[in-house]
Write a structure and sequence with these properties.
The chain has about 325 residues and is α/β, with parallel strands linked by helices. The chain has two domains: about 200 residues, no CATH class; about 100 residues, Spore Coat Polysaccharide Biosynthesis Protein SpsA, Chain A, CATH 3.90.550.10. It has eleven helices and ten strands. Strands 1, 2, 3, 4, 5, 6, 7, 8, 9 and 10 form a ten-stranded mixed β-sheet that branches. Helix 2 links the parallel strand 2 and strand 3.
Length: about 325
């Protein structure tokens, strides 16, 4: 299926403080105070929400990207994940693996694979100092110097031409801060379940607005809205994307599979905690309590009993991506 690129102006109701529009520093400070008071107070995230009008357009046309992979006892799946990163048709400029204290040889395997990476790829092996996946991602992103950040979990993998498609999208649309695509879902036993794309459920707070492993973000967006909130353990990616959305960061969707997502992580197994975190995120970012509470009830009373987990496999195995 040919790529269908759509730019979703997530900040249509907030165009007066979109990063793409540019505003003076006083107005920026006022907007930041109004839009992020609850987030900063509850999460303690420091962010500089506004960027100059020409911030992206003055960047070089040929952008670079770096890949972050966080690991914890992931020896069984790590080789496949890193192979997908290093085998991209458009190679990364940086690859960072950050380990949370693995005891199964994950760190040694990562070091061996990174040592054999092409000389054009700068690699780093880090030992995590903070706690949780939020701490790992934030630490690794801090050391990256690339223009765009790819977060690839140790049990997930990129499609061979994912980077080429994503970077072409960023380079052709300088104001876009987030590029996301569809994800190929695979069960823990390796059975392919289908390809998932964002839909109406993603915009109602029932699931994330984007498919996390198929979501790539400009490095400057992390500076603009802040990193991942360590208060969330399962739905931290959802909270980050909601912050981007409410900050008016422009999104672009590529209607093709960009990554493979393996079910079985904490967001899929610790469902009660995930649902509570989704409710907290909805209440934090929504202007009303009705929508997030309704979304929570749908997840708990309808989707969980039916084992839907908030996902609808709109494209089945064997269909074109």
């Amino acid at each position: 299926m040919a790529a269908r690129d759509e730019v979703f102006d997530q900040g249509a109701a907030k165009r007066d403080h979109s990063v793409a529009d540019g505003i003076d520093e006083d107005e920026c400070a006022q907007v930041s105070e109004v839009s992020y008071e609850k987030s900063r107070r509850r999460a303690g995230i420091e962010a500089k929400q506004c960027l100059p009008r020409d911030h992206y357009t003055r960047r070089p046309m040929r952008l670079t990207y770096g890949v972050v992979t966080a690991t914890l006892n992931a020896r069984q799946s790590l080789a496949r994940s890193l192979a997908s990163t290093l085998g991209q048709s458009r190679a990364p400029s940086e690859v960072v693996v950050i380990d949370g204290g693995s005891q199964d040889g994950t760190r040694e395997l990562a070091q061996s694979i990174l040592a054999s990476a092409p000389s054009t790829v700068e690699t780093r092996m880090l030992e995590q100092t903070g706690r949780g996946i939020a701490g790992a991602w934030n630490e690794a992103i801090d050391v990256l110097r690339s223009d765009v950040v790819f977060l690839v979990n140790a049990d997930d993998a990129l499609e061979p031409s994912a980077a080429e498609r994503v970077m072409a999208a960023f380079e052709s649309s300088p104001t876009v801060g987030v590029v996301h695509g569809n994800a190929r879902f695979v069960a823990a036993d390796g059975r392919e379940m289908g390809i998932v794309r964002p839909g109406i459920l993603s915009r109602l707070g029932i699931r994330c607005r984007t498919m996390h492993p198929a979501t790539m973000v400009r490095r400057d967006v992390y500076t603009s809205v802040g990193g991942f909130d360590p208060a969330f353990r399962n739905a931290l990616d959802v909270e980050f994307i909601e912050r981007c959305h409410h900050a008016g960061i422009p999104f672009m969707h590529i209607d093709q599979a960009l990554a493979t997502f393996t079910l079985g992580g904490v967001s899929n197994t610790q469902v009660a905690r995930t649902d509570r975190e989704m409710l907290t995120i909805g209440l934090r970012h929504s202007r009303t309590t009705i929508v997030p509470v309704a979304a929570y009830l749908v997840r708990r009373l309808v989707m969980r009993p039916l084992s839907l987990a908030g996902y609808h496999l709109s494209k089945r195995e064997g269909t074109s991506s």
